[in-house]
Design a protein that fits this description.
The structure is a single chain. This protein is mainly β. The protein has one helix at 2-17; strands at residues 20-28, 34-39, 43-48, 53-61, 72-78, 81-87, 101-108, 111-118, 123-126, 129-136, 141-154, 159-172, 177-181, 191-195, 200-204, 210-216, 221-223, 229-233, 237-242, 248-253, 258-262. It has a 21-stranded mixed beta sheet that branches. The radius of gyration is 22 Å and the shape is elongated. The relative contact order is 0.12.
Amino acid sequence: MRHLTLTAFAVALMLTAARADDWSKTYTVERTPQLRVDTSDADIRLDTWDQNKIEAHVTTERWKIGGEGGIKIVERQSGDAVEIEVRFPHRSFVFDTGSRRVLIELHMPRTGKINLRTGDGRISVNHLKGDLDLYSGDGRLEVEDVDGNLRARTGDGSIRVAGRFDSLDVTSGDGRVSLMVRPGSRVARSWDVRTSDGSVNLEIPADLAADLDLHTGDGHISLNPPLTVEGKFSNQDVHGKLNGGGNRLVVHTGDGSITVDKS
């Protein structure tokens, strides 16, 4: 009995030690930073600050960092380019059946280039100007108060975006898409917004010029006044010129309605 008690106590200590862990590092950059983060299973949050530094902070629940059976963090810096990989161990049996969670929190200068990828998790980006490339295999994407070029893709999850844009490439395999396009945006090259299953709400400036291509496989399209489109349209298809036309603005959904409003 004493042996069993000591064994149980040792296991409990191991589980407690693995219950939470954290890692952090700060990188100094001189000009425009380039940040790439890649992980198979974690939430990613990015915000900006007025410092010439990139700060990365990884926190876990019921995961340890490092050692046998723990999460491995691989990081490198070359000039203003920083790359961080958060790798999970291959495991065939886990004693701890509680909820496991990993969060990657990032701070960086207000202007830069980012590439954030997670196989399973949410991505949140705020207040960044530059080039943004975001991907989640299964998770929600939230982008707020950004400026520049955005590519955002999720295999399963909603997408909510607000900012001033020159280019947009937004795709959800299964989820609602909400886009608030700020004044000053321009369709410098074709914009593409798609979801296989979900509605699309698009708010655009009154002076945005584009050739509209709107289509829903199962739903309806609403162009709220006083938005004027020159061309042909029906309840499920709109092809026409907005403010004289320009590069294409494509919005397609396989199953869901499309609503276009003025922002």
